[in-house]
Amino acid sequence: MHPSRAAFVEEEPQAQHGGVDLANIPIDRNYDLTTGGTGIAPERASAILSQFDRKRRAAQIAVPTDDGKVRAKLREMGEPITLFGEGPADRRDRLRELMMDQVEEQGEDGAVDVQMTDAAEQPDQEEEFYTEGIPELLVARRKIARYSLPRAQARISRQRRESAIPLRTHVKHRKAIKEKLQGFELFGSQTASERPVSITRFAPNGELIAAGSWAGGIKLLDVPNLEEKRTFRGHTGIVGGIAWYPGATLPSSTVSQDTVNLASGAGGQGGANQIHLWSLTQDTPLSTLEGHTDRVCRVEFHPSGQYLASASFDTTWRLWDVETTTELLLQEGHSRQVFAVSFNTDGSLLASGGFDSIGRIWDLRTGRTVMILDGHIREIYSLDWGVDGYRVLSGSGDGWVKCWDIRQVRGIGGLGAHNGNVSDLRWFKGTDADILPTTDQHMGNGTRNDQTPKKAGTFFVSSGFDKNVNIYSADDWSLARQLSGHSGNVLSVDVSQDAKWIASTPDDVAAAAEDEVEEDVAEDVAETVVLAVLEDEVSSDDVKFCWFVIVAVTPVALVQAEPTTSRAEVTEAGRLDDRKQVGPVVWGFLTDEASDRDAGVIVSELDVLAATWFVALEFIVEAE
Fold first, then answer.
1. Quick check: 535 and 620 in contact, CB under 8 A?
2. What is the span of the domain harbouring residue 480?
């Protein structure tokens, strides 16, 4: 056989080179060094081994990682808190060496307060812990259980009745609502404060708006004229939360105007971290709830009206007794500031969220966490429950709105709602949430009497730092309408219970500064409350023409002109006192057959006449 066709047999490497297989290499953990063949003196070898042993023991000492705590520990030990050119890592290593020196000086029998950890052990996992509550909290939990259980039973009964409605009826009903939502248009705006308005909420009857600002003031504005009815004075910090008492302002309610109708929370910027309870008959608070150690953000009334929840930058949310103004519960659980709280419709659960990007669902009857909302990558700024009692929406700084189902204990949907922070969101609660499905009025051949689904919970509104207010359908999460036109970040939004009005508060002060407005003009720009209305809520018999409104820093003389008005004619007419006032700070001009193109020309001319900053927006207004 030719040698090239013969099989090649590889020789054993050990036989060729006299080596040792890797698996057979002996492992020696005896570090005793001998003098023979090492070239190292015994004293030097012992010093090296001692240094290795010192480093091993020093690595087991628990040293603070926070630089502030490292400095405090150095100061406690009487050492310089920092050396020239020393960074945080070097400072921490120096502290470790000093603590190791203390251990060696005291010896094994010395009493040195040094925490030692085994480097091989894993860090302890955080566990839930419970603290003993006050007797009043036990009474409150029992009351909440007695209140929520019958409501949950009634809600489930209504949902079973509604589930019997044919699917095509639901689809037709939702389609009609979505088409109606597309009719929202700007109605008017009003100055509410000299500083940004941080929060706005509709009264239960939809005829009043409460608006709180960074200046600490709270104003009541009527709907739809947006005229100021009352100013509440008491806060000195940023008003972060406003909540109406359940049933307040409703004709059928037993809530008197002299009792608690409104709650607000504020703090920060050197102001007191307090919660005020207000009536509608005086501009000073009826009572004050104190206990938070940092700024108070959102506040929310329990559906029963007996309790109030508050979120704060002190990383806690608290539960208060409204009647006795007693703090019933101080709830921990968040690692950073808590910004939002919300009760479900039954009153049994509360959702909380904050700057740790985590939301939690708490059972108020037991005090336990029943679900963790883990899915956002930025701060949670808003939470709101649906009328179905088991879905909750969360809005975050990552621009996403997520829906969570407590029955499935997971998220069931999410949408990129805004190109920036989602500052606020509100689910449409409606006035028919607690009513059994109604029947229609057409009785064809005397036999048909179909049930009609309720309107409550069919859509929600959200505001964001992309200067938009969005209206979303709550069944397919589609965008029904986007309300644009704000020149600044929208800080808050709310929808009335009759679904006719949406109120929003844009941060126009910041927008004015970004547009390089003159400094003195920018300082005079006041925050506004903008009101949107459904277009078909205005009767066609009352509408004569289309207006363009201007929200101005100073009143602008607006002219009545033909669509073909030239620049010279507009300038000349601007000197005339031919202006019309629609609202407190809403001005408009009239054209017989106004079009977008002609109106845009006139708006540009008014910019020259006004010589100041303004915002032009389109809406429908009643003719005089």
1. yes
2. 135-435+456-512+525-534
